[in-house]
Design a protein that fits this description.
CATH topology of the largest domain: Aminopeptidase
Protein name: GNAT family N-acetyltransferase
CATH class of the largest domain: Alpha Beta
InterPro entries: Acyl_CoA_acyltransferase, GNAT_dom
Oligomer: single chain
Distance between the termini: 31 Å
Shape: globular
Number of helices: 8
CATH architecture of the largest domain: 3-Layer(aba) Sandwich
Strand content: 25-35%
Strand order of the largest sheet: 1-2-3-4-5-12-6-11-10-9-8-7
Largest sheet: 12 strands, mixed
Organism: Macrococcus armenti
Length: about 280
């Protein structure tokens, strides 16, 4: 076996997609569908996705997706072998990342609770446990259309930028990431009221008759006014009626009991748990 950089995006995407369907291999930051994973890999550098190869067969993958100049989400570890040799290869890959990306000081991991091999990797890398999120899913539409929600257009870029400034100190990477995904696989909707953008919701449209709510946010000045409820209600209604989805999913932190109860009232149910970790370069 040898370590190499990603060369074939389609082959790598297929490997990630097939293993990521299984809870014991599932990694949170890898996108859901084959098409969206191909798009995700096309946006990262070859050296940002390392593979363990056995001749022409991919055994394991370990990559990063930059958040900004100093932070990155880790796309892995995802592997079909969990022996000691594979673990050692992944540790070597990790050291390669640290050496070749000296500017990145913080890495984030997201692994399914059944990803036992991933948990052992986290111990070996001495990461910090951050907490757990639930994936929640609904297969029924209990909502109604909300007229204040509109589809994003370039004319609203300044307003969207203002709300991202409220959310992030270094807002540009996340803003650009969201705006660059708008198209066949992602949609962005704004809550516009009194001529002011007060919230937004970012939706991923999958090719398996499902939709994911990637992000929902209400500006701090307009909380507790039902805006979050209206955005999620709109997204669910839109997914079922416009895209003929059979299910809608989202993630919520396990400690946010009020949010969980809120989503349950809209028909969402918990289907699995994701554990989150952080590695900080000393």
């Amino acid at each position: 076996m040898n370590i190499t950089q990603m060369e074939d995006i389609k082959k790598t995407a297929k490997f990630l997609y097939e293993l990521n369907q299984q809870s014991e291999h599932h990694v949170g930051y890898i996108r859901v569908t084959l098409q969206s994973i191909e798009e995700q890999l096309a946006l990262i550098s070859k050296e940002d996705m390392l593979l363990v190869m056995d001749e022409d067969d991919i055994i394991a993958a370990f990559g990063i997706e930059r958040i900004n100049d100093a932070e990155a989400n880790v796309l892995g570890p995802i592997t079909k072998q969990t022996d000691e040799m594979t673990l050692n290869m992944i540790k070597v890959m990790w050291q390669n990342f640290l050496i070749s990306h000296p500017g990145i000081t913080t890495y984030y991991f997201s692994l399914h609770e059944d990803h036992r091999f991933g948990q052992s990797v986290m111990k070996n890398l001495r990461t910090q446990y951050l907490g757990t999120t639930y994936t929640m899913k609904t297969t029924e539409n209990k909502t109604t259309i909300v007229p204040q929600v509109i589809k994003y257009k370039p004319v609203y870029k300044r307003s969207f930028t203002d709300i991202m400034k409220d959310l992030y100190v270094d807002f540009k990477p996340m803003r650009d990431k969201i705006l660059n995904t708008i198209g066949n696989t992602h949609e962005l909707y704004l809550y516009l009221n009194e001529g002011i953008v007060k919230g937004f919701i970012w939706i991923q449209i999958n090719d398996d008759d499902s939709c994911d709510i990637q992000f929902v946010y209400t500006h701090l000045q307009y909380r507790q006014k039902g805006i979050g409820h209206d955005l999620v209600s709109f997204a669910v209604d839109h997914a079922f009626k416009k895209h003929h989805a059979t299910s809608v999913q989202l993630s919520v932190k396990s400690k946010r009991e009020k949010d969980i109860a809120f989503y349950e009232k809209l028909g969402f149910k918990k289907i699995n748990e994701m554990n989150h970790f952080k590695y900080t370069v000393e």
